[in-house]
Design goal:
It is an enzyme of class 2 (transferase). With about 325 residues, the protein is of the alpha+beta class. The chain contains 12 helices and 13 strands. About 35% of the residues lie in helices and about 25% in strands. It binds adenosine-5'-diphosphate and magnesium ion. The site of adenosine-5'-diphosphate (ADP) has 13 residues, from helix 1, strand 4 and strand 5.
């Protein structure tokens, strides 16, 4: 199967289903064309996933399609952007039709769920690697950044943390239990917090998506903003499923495990009190921004010591 036949059969249909008037020209020409409406900024980011490094070897192709687009689109969520379109650079060891059909199915489901259209790509032979560039827009000058946190702001996270990290233990389980399946689905099918990010535009002072673990990613906000924070591990949102599969270690995973793709934001108290209830309900306050640099972790001294943090209070 040639490159063009492969594109026509598996990837062109994804572009044909596109429902955006901002993608003027999709796959098939030398470039795609995106129209950025007046009063909007173009927001874009690229992510590469390498087999054996960013996803397991022989990983289910449909899961890979979903996961690759979800991971890339999560960066748009963290900026408060509306997704528009993406390009796909795909490096394949061989043109396995079953694999391609599964991968395209996962991509199609994710494209539809996130409202983002395939605009073009590149297809090459080599070790399995998926690179996605995602494009979105925000109202001019309003993109959420990492550098706006101020002393006194609340630190909040969305959803629950640690579930996807717990799934790593069960990826190879032949018959995962119901509760193991719950955490597995959080790894296979992350859901970028697009709507939440958009609701936080003009309200949050800083935002980041949690791809490497809360402690690591919150520190990116602190460094970019030139501030510090104090958070309490006991306030972290942890799912019942995570507690069930990991017991005592649930908190450690919630603090340090990646792959959840929830949002971590900072927000002024005045802005917080004015948030619409449905937005507030998506968030949990876990701490506060302080003027002196560094991250101070309360409520989990054993974990804090292990991770090299200043700590206060006691493990419960
Ligand atoms: P060029 O040589 O001009 O870069 P290509 O031969 O690489 O063009 O690609 C031809 C067309 O097919 C382009 O419009 C490109 O965007 C599209 N395309 C190539 N690979 C993919 C892919 N994996 N998914 C979607 N579109 C693709
Ligand atoms: Mg090319």
């Amino acid at each position: 199967m040639g490159e063009f036949e492969l594109i026509r059969q598996f990837f062109q249909p994804l572009a044909d289903r596109a429902v955006t008037d901002q993608l003027i020209l999709g796959p098939g020409d030398d470039c795609a064309i995106q129209r950025v409406p007046p009063g909007r900024d173009l927001v874009f980011s690229v992510d590469t996933l390498v087999e054996g490094v960013h996803f397991p070897e022989h990983y289910h192709p449909e899961y890979l399609g979903w996961r690759a687009l979800a991971v890339a689109t999560s960066d748009l969520a963290a900026m408060g952007a509306m997704p528009v379109c993406y390009t796909l650079a795909l490096t394949l060891p061989e043109a396995d039709q079953n694999w391609l059909a599964g991968f395209a199915r996962g991509l199609a489901r994710a494209s539809e769920a996130f409202g983002i259209a395939l605009a073009g790509g590149d297809t090459t032979r080599g070790p399995l690697t998926v690179t996605l560039q995602v494009h979105g827009t925000v109202a001019t000058g309003t993109g959420l950044r990492r550098n706006g946190a101020q002393s006194g702001d609340l630190v909040c996270v969305s959803g629950t943390l640690g579930d996807a990290g717990a799934a790593l233990d069960f990826l190879a389980a032949p018959e995962p239990s119901a509760v193991q399946q719950q955490v597995l689905s959080r790894y296979h099918f992350p859901e970028p917090r697009l709507f939440l990010g958009q609701q936080l535009v003009g309200r949050a002072s800083a935002a980041i998506d949690i791809s490497d673990g809360l402690l690591a990613d919150l520190q990116h906000i602190l460094q970019a903003s030139g501030v510090g924070a104090r958070i309490n591990a006991q306030d972290l949102p942890v799912s019942a499923a995570l507690r069930q599969v990991r017991g005592e270690q649930a908190l450690e995973l919630a603090l340090t495990a990646g792959d959840d793709y929830q949002l971590c934001i900072t927000i002024g108290q005045e802005q917080w009190s004015q948030l619409p209830d449905p937005v507030k309900q998506e968030l949990t306050v876990i701490g506060r921004i302080e003027p002196q640099p560094g991250l101070r972790l309360e409520g989990a001294p054993r974990i804090a010591a292990k991770a090299g943090f200043d700590h206060f209070g006691s493990d419960v």
